[in-house]
Structure formats: C-alpha cells, structure tokens
Amino acid sequence: MSSVKSGKRWVVPTVLVVACLGSGAWALPQFFSAQNMRDGADSAYSAPAAQAPATVEEKGEVDTAALESRLAKISEDFTGGTITGMVVDAESGQTLYAEGADQPRVPASNFKLLTDFTLFQVEDPSARYRTEVKQSGQNLTLVAGGDTLLGTGESKENQVVGHAGLRTLAQQVVDSLEPGTYTLDLDSSRFSGPDLNPAWAQEDIDAGFVSRISPLAFYSHHSPGENGKSTEQRPENADQQVQQYLVDDLNELGKGQGLTFELGSETQAAEAAETVGSVESATVAEQSALMMQESDNMLAETLARNASVASGGDGSFESARQLVLDTLTSRGISTDQLTISDLSGLSLDNRVTNQTLVQIMQKMVDGEGPASASLAGLPVAGGSGTLEDRFDGSDEAAARGWARAKTGTLNSVISLTGYTTTESGHTLIYSFITNDVESATAARDALDESVAAVTEL
Length: 457
Prior knowledge:
This protein has 457 residues and is an alpha+beta fold.
C-alpha cells in the first residue's frame, strides 16, 4: 500500500466521510454504492460546493520527456485496441503530451462530462425539482417537475435519493381535501419528444442500462420492491408507476376521512388549479454528484432534459443535444468532430476528442463560473464511485487518492478524463480513451498506469 505523499495537500469537500485505517493508509473520500443511494439508505451525504485543487508550492518543472517516454511505452504495450491521450498543465495551459488528441473517439461515459458541464451553465447548483399535486374541483393532477429520485416513503431531507417522499406528498394532499371522491390525473408535459433514443441498442434497453425517460420516477427509473426499496427492474412507464403508487397511498391515508381516489388520465393541469401538496428533490449539485459518481445513465439523460427546460427549451432530447452543442461553442470549447447521439455516453455513435474533454476539465478546475460544481462528483482513484476498485496494481498505486476522474466503460471502450496533483506540485489535466478494446481489464490497467505516470512527475 502506498503511503501519503509528504508536503502536499489535495483539497476535497470536508463533509465527506474519510477513511484513515491502518499503518501507511491515506485519506480518501468515501461514497455509498449506487444501490444504497437508490434505496435511500441512511446517511449524511450532501454534495458540497466543489473546490478547485489546492495551490501548492511547485518543486520543479514537469519532465515532459519522461512523461512522453512513459506514456509511449504504455501505449506500445497495450495491443488490445487503440489508445489516444492528452495531458495539460492546469495553471499554464501548456500541452505536455498529445497522441491522437484531435481524433474523434467513442467516449463511453466520459460523454457525461459534456452533459454535466452544460447543466451547471444553465442551472443553479442549489436549485431543486418540485413534484406537485394540483386541485381543480374533484380533479387532482400529479405534476411531474423533473425529480426522478423520488422515494416511496416519507421525505428524507438528509438523502439524495428519496429526498422527496411520495408518502409525505400523499399526506399533504389528504390533509388539504374535503371528504369526497377525487380523480388523480398525470401531467408529464415537462418533457417532450421521444422518450426512447433510437441510438440505444435494444440489448442495452433489455439489460436495463437505460429505459424510457420520464420527468417523474422512483429511484432513478428503478421500480420499488415490496420493502419500498429499489429493485433492478425498470418500469415501462415510470411516471404512471408513481401515479398508481400515489393513488394507493391516498386511498390508504384517506379512507378514515371520507376520501376516495380513482386513477385518472394523462392531461395537463388546469391553469386555475391550486397546489394542495408538493415535495422538493435534492439539489441539482447533489443529483449531479450522484450521476457522476455512479455513472447513472438515466440520471444523466434526465438532468440533460431538465437543463433544456431551464434554458427555455422543450425538454426533448433534440433540445438538450442542441443546448450542449451551443454551450460548448459559447464557452470556447472545441466542437470539432463532435457527434452527439445521446447525453449519457451509452450510444456507440457518440464521438468526441481528447482535446474537447481536456478543455472542459480545464474550465472545471479553473473554477470558471459555475463549472467547478462538477468537481464534487468526480470519483477518487481507488477511493470512491466507479474508481473505488481501480488503481490496485503496483504500477497504478501512485495515483490512488490523488487523481480524480470520470470513467467510461462499454464493451469496446474504456476512457478516463480528470485531473491529478503530481509529485512536483503541479495540477495536471488528462484524458485517455481506448477504442476497439479486446480486454476491458487490460484497457483499464493501461489507463490507470497512464494516470499514475502523470501523477508521479
């Protein structure tokens, strides 16, 4: 096990749990598993405002010759696919290494960096999504407000998933109504256009990697189980599932008060309808951190559509796609050879260059505008999220606890984009992508070794 590097600090959000067990261990932020987060497991997790890497006293110049030699050797030894990469000094902007960095590549979930960057250009990190029930006479309407992390029980304000609870909403509605029979309609008009992307492979849909996108869902589009926790099953229509659960809750809570409820149709709420209950989601920053930590495809697609709505769009995929393209262009980020096929990176039709990914990461690390809010969600090498079990080899250990990155994994793609603090005190930004992968393990090792080589400078 590698020991802590002396004389250096790396700023991380202080509210995260820190593990420092055993001789020679290092402090690493710890996050919960994706399943526990969907379950609404008890925790004090709250995504903080992200901080840029600490400024440390630099001890010398980066040895670019050594870097090029080391990365060239890793690339040469990796024979199970193609690898491209780019490394940039965060402070000076100087390119230290580039190999095929201007080539269009299939990025897998590294594409979520584009979505997340765009999200914080149009959304307030502290904003929340509201789920409401409105009343017009004997008609009630459940209005979807973009929260797909609903829980079935009471609202749990110290959690991301289940922050807004359907049982709490039902109780508010029951407490506000006079005795009688009511019909509960559903308003899902927040999003428009197709709810399934034709670019998604049917086998990925069948496997549950993605499903129909709705502006209202339990547990990031997972069905609740009998115990009220998440299952691995995807509902056919997530918003209708919530509607049915709410009707059942309303009837259970209202039967002693002369209230009965019937399932209605899908229609927009009347303009004059009054709100009789509402619950709010975890913040946009907290949802973003969950999406990035666990590489949640459904949450990425949902947040992209919510970003479209926040910018005045219609909540469709096409509107969200155009928003990403326009945002990158307006922020001076290269869109050369960029192809946007979805917003989560699941599609093999997506294309992006290492150069574009590095430019996005540069703006995040620089703390330009709200872009730094994305940093809180980046997994830590060997410590959290999708990097928790990575960097476990002796040639990779130097990056453990020091590098942060967004992962990307498809059958034929492994990618890694992030930043690290080097032995010489520099903050370096990197992006490595492998395509045509024959062995995912070999590709991951090659990228982890590459990041370790950057960190050791």
